[in-house]
Design brief:
With 219 residues, this protein is mainly β. 13% of the residues lie in helices and 42% in strands.
Length: 219
């Protein structure tokens, strides 16, 4: 392919993208609520994870995540099945800190992207809901306009599974997260990312634990 045509092709593809239309139901007011699967207390999660990039073999890992919604602080670690720590990083209001990063996880872009995806999964967006209604697929959706650009839909399908979808400003789907139905939405998580290469992440819960709030306990 002529490389000079690549930017034109990208523009054409972007122009074909648009946000799914939300139909507002006449009786929605007061009867339809926004799905909210997000953590409400500081919690540590242990997941078995399978990650795959386009055209690559799936990688099996153990993931440890600590999510604190009050401070919007994240900490995560990736380990091999044998227990070797491959990657460890955290993010708070002061920024991101990488404690350990072995190849192929030794990129600041990887760390930033992973923490962004974890935040997308576990934290409720701070922006207010702009639209509430139903997609043509029957999915009940709450739509937010994100402060850093783009849109976020959070919806629930007929099987009780929560769908989180992040779109670009122009309506291109960038991230799609599906959470398990039932009492624990984090029992099974599937994330699809559409970048230049694209990747997927499947997470199966091993255990979770609510942690004490150190600020409130005085520690």
């Amino acid at each position: 392919m002529n490389v000079r045509l690549l930017p034109i092709l990208c523009l054409l593809l972007a122009s074909c993208s648009s946000l799914p239309e939300i139909r507002t139901l006449p009786d929605a007011a007061g009867k339809t609520t926004c799905p909210s699967p997000f953590v409400v207390q500081k919690t540590r999660f242990l997941h078995a994870m399978e990650a795959a990039a386009a055209g690559e073999t799936r990688t099996v890992m153990i993931g440890v995540t600590v999510a604190d919604p009050a401070s919007r602080t994240l900490a995560c670690a990736l380990m091999s099945p044998e227990g070797m720590v491959l990657f460890e990083a955290s993010r708070n209001s002061s920024g991101m800190e990488i404690s350990r990063a072995l190849p192929p996880f030794d990129s600041s872009d990887f760390a930033r992207g992973l923490l962004d995806d974890i935040g997308l999964i576990f934290f409720e967006p701070p922006e207010p809901v702009e639209r509430l209604g139903v997609l043509d697929t029957g999915l009940t959706v709450c739509r937010r306009r994100l402060r850093d650009g783009g849109w976020l839909d959070v919806g629930k399908d007929r099987d009780g599974r929560v769908q989180i979808r992040r779109y670009s400003e122009g309506g291109r789907l960038k991230r799609s997260v599906t959470l398990a139905g039932g009492a624990d939405p984090y029992a099974a998580i599937d994330l699809q990312a559409w970048e230049w290469t694209g990747y997927s992440l499947s997470m199966t819960l091993i255990e979770s634990e609510i942690l004490p709030d150190e600020a409130r306990s005085g520690k």
